[in-house]
Write a structure and sequence with these properties.
The strands form three sheets. Strands 6, 7, 8, 9, 10 and 11 form a six-stranded mixed sheet that branches. It is flat, with a radius of gyration of 28 Å. The chain is built from nine helices and eleven strands. The termini are far apart. The protein is an alpha+beta fold. The protein folds into three domains: 108 residues, no CATH class; 80 residues; 107 residues, Double Stranded RNA Binding Domain, CATH 3.30.160.
Length: 328
């Protein structure tokens, strides 16, 4: 008998909830979420669709957009970070491996999102959902993430200050620079979560770190080795190293080597194709400590054009990857 009573109570509560969701009256939270979840305490967003699950997914996605991250059941926009990846005053938009950290932080922030309200319009059969996230909860996660980055920056700075090797110092400062866009992304999220727009200023600035990296690179001495196939790019390699600030010498413990491999031009479907590979290596006392091998492929309407495009592409690869072979 007791079990039956409990069952009836649960059934009654379920029916009440269902009736509330199916109420003909449009709920106030659809037009004014702050009337139910004050803006001072919550971030909120709604979504609608022809099914309840889709409506909830869209509400979650719209909440995520507040943090400049679009999440849906089908796709997620990849954050693009504008970073000065080439010290030779070239800016490249890249999908950096470090962005995975930013995305993971965004995902962790979104773990606190809850579907607080649901409603189905009895006339149109459209489903609506309201997603909310506690500002306090989001702020706690962001503070923890900022502390993690700051601890990593402090560790890298300590190691850079203690190192007597110019190249190692430059690499450590470069690692710090790679963390700065992620920290700024977290700062922007914190400004959104905090109604006063307050955040936590970084102890280090990009300009200061770039200057430290430059000073360290100016103490690096390298020689170069170029294969016969890459001889046409020797001056390009020298210019790139000079732009980085390193010193060139006929012989040195550190050596940057360049090789370019070109395959015979092929023809397919009316196009001429040239495939090749640029190989950049950093060697220390004849031991390879870093190597980048980047293949490329270019199409053209003539053999001559294919060769010109191939040579130009090889030059682009050298320009973009030279700093990586030194600093990564």
């Amino acid at each position: 008998m007791y079990i039956i009573i409990i069952f009836l109570k649960v059934l009654m509560l379920t029916c009440i909830a269902a009736c509330a969701n199916l109420s003909a009256e449009r709920p106030s939270w659809l037009d004014d979420p702050n009337s139910v979840y004050p803006q001072a305490e919550y971030l909120s967003a709604s979504g609608s669709a022809d099914t309840a699950e889709k409506a909830k997914d869209r509400a979650m996605a719209n909440t995520a957009k507040i943090f400049s991250v679009t999440i849906s059941s089908a796709s997620r926009d990849v954050l693009q970070v504008q970073q000065n990846t080439d010290i030779n005053n070239k800016t490249e938009s890249v999908e950096r491996s470090a962005q995975m950290f930013t995305n993971s932080i965004a995902a962790q922030t979104m773990e606190g999102v809850n579907i607080a309200r649901e409603w189905r319009d009895p006339k149109t059969q459209e489903y609506y959902a309201l997603a909310i996230i506690s500002r306090a909860q989001a702020a706690n996660k962001l503070r923890a993430a900022l502390r993690g980055i700051d601890e990593a920056l402090e560790d890298l700075a300590r190691r850079a200050n203690a190192s007597a090797q110019p190249l190692e110092k430059a690499r450590l400062y470069n690692a710090m620079l790679k963390l700065m866009p992620d920290r700024e992304a977290l700062q922007e999220k914190m400004r959104i979560v905090n109604l006063q727009g307050l955040a936590y200023p970084a102890e280090y600035t990009v300009n200061a770190l770039e200057n430290q990296r430059r000073l360290a690179l100016e103490q690096v001495v390298v020689s170069i080795a170029v294969t016969e196939a890459a001889m046409a790019y020797k001056s390009n390699l020298e210019a790139g190293l000079n732009a980085l600030g390193v010193k060139l010498a006929p012989t040195a413990a550190l050596q940057v080597s360049l090789d370019i491999k070109m395959e015979p031009i092929t023809q397919k479907d009316g196009w001429y194709w040239l495939r090749g590979e640029v190989v950049l290596s950093l060697n220390e006392n004849a031991v390879t400590i870093n190597r980048i091998a980047e293949p490329f492929k270019v199409p053209a309407t003539t053999k001559e054009e294919a060769m010109v495009r191939g040579l130009r592409k090889a030059d682009e690869v050298i320009s973009l990857r030279l700093n990586e072979v030194l600093l990564n």
